[in-house]
Amino acid sequence: MDEFEQFMIDFLHLTGIDLSLYKRPQMERRLTSLRNQLGCDTYPQFAEKLSLQPEWLHRVLDKMTINVSEFFRNRERWTMLSTYIFKGPMTHPFRFWSAACSTGEEPYSLRILASQAGVTEIDLLATDIDSTALSHARQGIYQQHQLREVTKSELAAYFQETPVGWQINREIAESVHFQQHNLLSDPYPSALDLIICRNVLIYFTDGAKHHVISEFAKALRTGGLLFLGSTEQLLHAKEYSLYPVAPFLYQKLSTMP
Ligand SMILES: C[S@@+](CC[C@H](N)C(=O)[O-])C[C@H]1O[C@@H](n2cnc3c(N)ncnc32)[C@H](O)[C@@H]1O
């Protein structure tokens, strides 16, 4: 066993997070750079520091994946999603889940689309593994670069300008239920009409990705939709009873065997 493998075991004991389910080269590159920044020359030293100074664990979580997000990333895909969800045969109340939502831009984007479609009956759960990202999400304050795809009229209708950035309206913020959740180890919600999970599967090993996609398929109602990121095409979607209905949008068409 090499030093990094031992570190992954130590980290699992410290946090319950299994780093071996993430693609190793990029994970090791990022964590080695953080380890060096924090003044540790070896992984055993790094593990010891983390056990003595748990506040550093947040820095590791920040490094594991990038928390970068923005409102309506790839706007044309959101427009397409809105057509399928709000103008299709689905009936409310809707049950939606924004998984790996980072700092909240995706669930709030979805909530804005719902409001524009005149839909108010939504149960919207938004989760991430990173509690720091979730605190930002609950605060709901964003900078210009996160709002590039938000139109002027949306900015006026759904945000307030404050000295520290643009704050999402309280009514929108309060309609999203944020909760910490690890896609690789926690139980999934059920009977969902839509799961949004973008730009996190790319970090996972093939085995971990298989676990997440099959859990998503079980969590969806028949007819429910899975919305993935724009580099996250599913090659064997049908094995999960998921069928592509538009780029990066999959529909569950029958119950799982
Ligand atoms: C690149 S961000 C994607 C944010 C957003 N979905 C988007 O596409 O704009 C990746 C997010 O995945 C989260 N993440 C990483 N591993 C996770 C896991 N095992 N379970 C849940 N979230 C995870 C990170 O904390 C981070 O917020």
Describe this structure in words.
By secondary structure, the protein is α/β, with parallel strands linked by helices. The protein folds into two domains: 3-64, no CATH class; 75-252, Vaccinia Virus protein VP39 (Rossmann fold), CATH 3.40.50.150. It contains ten helices and ten strands. It has helices spanning 3-15, 24-37, 43-52, 56-64, 75-86, 105-116, 131-139, 152-158, 170-174, 206-219, and strands at residues 94-99, 122-128, 141-142, 159-162, 165-168, 176-180, 192-197, 220-228, 242-246, 249-252. The strands form two sheets. Strands 6-2-1-7-8-10-9 form a seven-stranded mixed beta sheet. It has a three-stranded antiparallel beta sheet with strand order 3-5-4. Helix 10 (206-219) links the parallel strand 7 (192-197) and strand 8. Helix 1 (3-15) runs parallel beside helix 3 (43-52) and helix 2 packs antiparallel against helix 4 (56-64). It is globular and about 55 Å long. The mean pLDDT is 93. Bound molecules: S-adenosylmethionine (SAM). The site of S-adenosylmethionine has 21 residues, from loops.
